[in-house]
Amino acid sequence: xxxxxxxxxxxxxxxxxxxxxxxxxxxxxxxxxxxxxxxxxxxxxxxxxxxxxxxxxxxxxxxxxxxxxxxxxxxxxxxxxxxxxxxxxxxxxxxxxxxxxxxxxxxxxxxxxxxxxxxxxxxxxxxxxxxxxxxxxxxxxxxxxxxxxxxxxxxxxxxxxxxxxxxxxxxxxxxxxxxxxxxxxxxxxxxxxxxxxxxxxxxxxxxxxxxxxxxxxxxxxxxxxxxxxxxxxxxxxxxxxxxxxxxxxxxxxxxxxxxxxxxxxxxxxxxxxxxxxxxxxxxxxxxxxxxxxxxxxxxxxxxxxxxxxxxxxxxxxxxxxxxxxxxxxxxxxxxxxxxxxxxxxxxx
Amino acid sequence: xxxxxxxxxxxxxxxxxxxxxxxxxxxxxxxxxxxxxxxxxxxxxxxxxxxxxxxxxxxxxxxxxxxxxxxxxxxxxxxxxxxxxxxxxxxxxxxxxxxxxxxxxxxxxxxxxxxxxxxxxxxxxxxxxxxxxxxxxxxxxxxxxxxxxxxxxxxxxxxxxxxxxxxxxxxxxxxxxxxxxxxxxxxxxxxxxxxxxxxxxxxxxxxxxxxxxxxxxxxxxxxxxxxxxxxxxxxxxxxxxxxxxxxxxxxxxxxxxxxxxxxxxxxxxxxxxx
Lengths: 348, 274
What we know:
The complex is a heterodimer of chains A (348) and B (274).
Chain A: H1 2-15, E1 21-26, H2 31-45, E2 48-53, H3 56-65, E3 70-73, H4 79-89, E4 93-107, E5 117-118, H5 120-128, H6 137-142, E6 154-158, H7 163-175, H8 177-182, E7 195-197, H9 199-209, E8 213-218, H10 219-224, E9 228-229, E10 231-233, E11 239-240, H11 244-251, E12 276-284, H12 296-310, H13 327-338, E13 341-342, E14 345-346
Parallel strand pairs in A: 1-2, 1-3, 5-10, 6-7, 6-8
Antiparallel strand pairs in A: 3-12, 4-8, 4-9, 4-12, 10-11, 13-14
Helix pairs in contact in A: 5-7, 12-13
Chain B: H1 2-39, H2 45-49, H3 63-93, H4 100-112, H5 115-130, H6 135-160, H7 163-171, H8 176-187, H9 189-204, H10 231-239, H11 244-273
């Protein structure tokens, strides 16, 4: 076995010598989609894009440390972060949206057949640790006719710096005064209660193993692993399950900002899912300012990759339960990508 | 009466020794059996020949991680082995050398540093200046982890050799370096290889120092200056995931890692004996 394996390795070496490799790191929220993108893109062009899902916080930090060609985050950079990049490296950071996703409340209650319904304030109280049992009257009130087991509630949250956490806490802060005051919004917050899991994968894994657990994760992790997820009451009062249509409804906004940094949570849309978000790839506008780039060929390869993602790549989104970008976001991204430079030269 | 009591006491003591041995062997046996049973189902042709599949898609394999483990660990062994051996020889053969005291201190301190700090060290010293994650930086982290183990093992082994061996060489007019190289080291071959293997086994199982150095790579790569995957990294990522197929493959990778170490151990020992 081993000898055959070595032979195989030796035979493969020459075949793999050529081709550009790009490295990226960040969000776990779009990881299943990005893995699909990059495997498809490799078959298409031979360019190898190595993406490691270390969390949005880590992605931004590695982009700042210039160890990767691109970062990825589901939380847009804050104004202070944008300024920090500009001060240190003299270049703007371009946000390239790639997909729309939904953060869903996932839970592990054996024997329930229909999805539970949650309201925003109820979710806030669950994650604050104020609702301690699954048969609490506040849950029962929203779910008439559902036989709730008397399990204790175990909260599962992220342990790493996470854009998913940012989206989730941003939503909870919009619907709960107490959440705003006690916990606040961020990629990592001081959780009042619960267990930490690393990445969307870790949270989904913990919830799967723990009866009575409630956590939050990107929709695809719930669907792929057959973990139950609940409907969330939106601002219009409707209980909405996350799916392609309700996420798209949440993203239908009128004044789309040119830098694409926009929050979609607590949408006023009638059928919109209230915890939806864009997810972004982050790159330096002046790519030569990032020491990870060793040549113009790499910069060109990154430009081509991003151009492909916002256009042809979008066809891969829906099979993995991410909504494709709305037309306005594609147009904004085209303009932003055209502004990318390597030593002052455009890359188109 | 007295004699019978002594025999009884003897038997009780022997029973305790057996019991102790059993208690020590039990967890090891349990781990081996459990890893084997959980992992053997994941080992198939694809596992050895394919790159990983995107999450949620069944199939895919560990080829990049298997290759990366070999490349990273062998580079680490080359670097750590050279430095560790040198340090060990200095401490054992030149006890009067002024560097010995600080060297021993460094070895002891390094031996107690958590592995993840080795990764941090390599991140600051190699990754940041070189502007990117690389297999080489992972090897540096693992080499630093190996050095104190190899150094101490080498020193112990050399100390056990009789001084008469060196005296015989010196009496023939050999310089000291020649005595060390041609007499002392060959005589201690077996022990030194054991030290190297111990260090390799320790390093081969570490994921923490590789997280921000070798970084991981979903494509097969032979470039030591680019990111590379490794079995412990894959085990770490796959084992905490919710995907059943990944968890199965994580067990498979764990089994493969154990088997690889056992095979290296066996081969190295056989080579030394010959």
